[in-house]
Amino acid sequence: MSAHATRPKTAFSHLFFWFLFANGGGLAALVLPVHILVQGILGPLGIVPVVDQHYDTWISILGNPIVKLYILVLIALSFFHFAHRLRYLLVDFGVPAAKSLTAQAIFYGGAVVVTAATIWILLTTAPLF
Amino acid sequence: MKAPAQAARAEPRSYRWSMPANWWTRNRHYFLYVLREFTALPMALWLLWLLYDIKSAGSGAAGFQPQKSPAFVAFSVVCFLFASYHSYTFLKLAGVIMHVKVLDKTVPPRLIVLTMFGLWAVASVVIGAVLIGFAR
Fold it and tell me: What are φ and ψ of residue B26, in 5° steps?
């Protein structure tokens, strides 16, 4: 008997979507609270000066290519994570249609649309070239 | 040929799965599970706001209006609570998901979780310093 008679197939699609899901969740976990705390609460209340409270500082940091890349990765990965979680939350709430191909197209397609919009916004706001 | 009554009986009947709509309110663990999964929605909404904040800088100095309204702060407070709960649950799970071996020895899950929470603290300090440090 040969152990290699049937070679195990690597589940590349699993690998790919788990990569998006796990890293999206991880990245959001590590950086999102501080963004919300500083840009959403402390800045607007005037407790600390924050970069997005003035046009000149905000547009200048948005012109940095590393910042653009960071925002793109943060939003793209996070939205694949959110799409997956929310679709399965619907399944848990007793909506079997959330398992359908249509639902998958809507949720993951939504993440693709948000990613594309992010790329467009980052390229047209404080453009690099 | 089958009699009409028989034909009706032979029709495939599908099993209807049903759960009471409030299943997740009956048990604390179910409730916390749903709460954890739900955190994705407020986090997504806040990131969409961030995109809008970036986009609005594109219309020039005259069109830019920094967000200061109490409603926005209230929205952010709610999102912050959900985002922090996501961080807490997700980073705690890292000890279960990640299996790391160093010098042939399995790193204890507690150490992995501790490292993840340490990373969270470092990332928060660095990002906070950039957001505040580059302001005027």
Answer: -85, -20
What tokens were used for A86? Answer: 């929310």
B105 three-class SS: strand
CA gap B125, B88 in Å, rounded: 17
Q: Give Rg (Cα) of chain B.
A: 25
State pLDDT tens for residues A89-115.
999 998 889 999 999 999 999 999 999
- Tell me the nearest-neighbour CA distance from B75 into chain A, angstroms: 8
pTM of the predicted structure, to 2 decimals: 0.87
- Contact (CB<8Å) B72/A40: yes
Question: Which chain B residues are Cβ-neighbours of A30 within 8 angstroms?
Answer: 87, 91, 119-120, 123-124
Q: Give chain A's radius of gyration (CA, Å).
A: 20
CB-CB neighbors (< 8 A) of B17 in chain A = 94, 96
